[in-house]
Design brief:
This protein has about 260 residues and is of the alpha/beta class. Helices cover about 25% and strands about 20% of the residues. It has 7 helices and 12 strands. The protein has a 7-stranded mixed sheet. A 5-stranded mixed sheet has the order 2-1-11-10-12. Helix 1 runs antiparallel to helix 2, helix 2 crosses helix 3 and helix 3 packs across helix 6.
């Protein structure tokens, strides 16, 4: 399927991921991402910290894995806060996020140049593998890794806080591949089709989403100067969810 190129951001909205990230640091201490995991861990990232994670991850992708226009990165991550650092980093490098299906293959059957996964043992050796721990604020992968795999938690922290050289983004190249394709030029415009009200504190249940869907929803929220509270609704009863809404000052429920 050809890359979609017709959608564009509304006036006053960031036109690309670089501008989106710049918007996150205009109020650097403001929470932009709060995660309640199924094991009841809570992770909160301010705009400055979130942008810093994306910058470091972009540097790793470009310097170690040659990410750039035309490079396809299989994002085999669940709907988890760590997907919200990796997908924007792939886009900032000008590369393409490829959706993964349950069989660990690209949904559109195309090639894969890099694999970013929380399941490194389930991927072959055809492309470099980056192992992403889902443990709260893990600093390294727990246990042995397949030969040649990159330990994301350890490696990302070695890269600079300032963005290094990145290739120019080819706006006509795919930013998302598989179900359907979306070009870089249309990435934020497509995401904004489901944007919440401007400035909203958004509660979103991650059940039923993959890492790519969650990243697009997050991009839409940040593009309208909002913030996210992510929960696995199956881990909370109604009373706990209502307490969370109040405690996190939620203003918009995305379901």
């Amino acid at each position: 399927m050809p890359a979609t190129t017709t959608d564009s951001p509304a006036a006053g909205r960031p036109a690309d991921v670089a501008a989106l990230l710049a918007g996150l640091v205009r109020e650097p201490g403001r929470p932009r991402l709060t995660w309640y995991g199924p094991d009841h861990e809570r992770v909160e990232l301010s705009g400055a910290v979130l942008a810093n994670w994306v910058v470091k991850t972009t540097n790793l992708l470009v310097e170690e894995l040659d990410a750039g226009p035309g490079v396809r990165v299989l994002l085999d991550l669940p709907a988890h806060w760590r997907a919200l650092t990796w997908a924007p980093a792939v886009w900032r490098a000008g590369a393409c996020v490829v959706r993964a299906d349950a069989a660990r293959a690209p949904a559109d059957g195309g090639r894969v140049d890099v694999v970013v996964t929380s399941r490194p043992d389930e991927h072959g050796t055809g492309a470099p593998v980056v192992a992403v721990s889902l443990a709260a604020l893990a600093r390294s992968w727990a246990g042995p890794l397949p030969r040649g795999a990159v330990d994301a938690a350890a490696a990302v922290m070695t890269y600079p806080d300032a963005l290094g050289w990145v290739p120019a983004v080819d706006t006509g190249a795919p930013a998302v591949a598989g179900g359907p394709d979306v070009a870089h030029a249309a990435l934020l415009g497509t995401a904004l089709g489901t944007a919440p009200p401007a400035g909203a504190r958004v509660l979103r249940d991650v059940r039923g989403l993959d890492g790519v869907d969650l990243a697009l929803a997050a991009a839409a929220t940040w593009a309208v100067d909002g913030s996210l509270v992510l929960v696995d609704g199956g881990a909370l009863d109604d009373a706990a969810l209502e307490r969370l809404r109040t405690g996190e000052r939620v203003t918009h429920d995305a379901g």
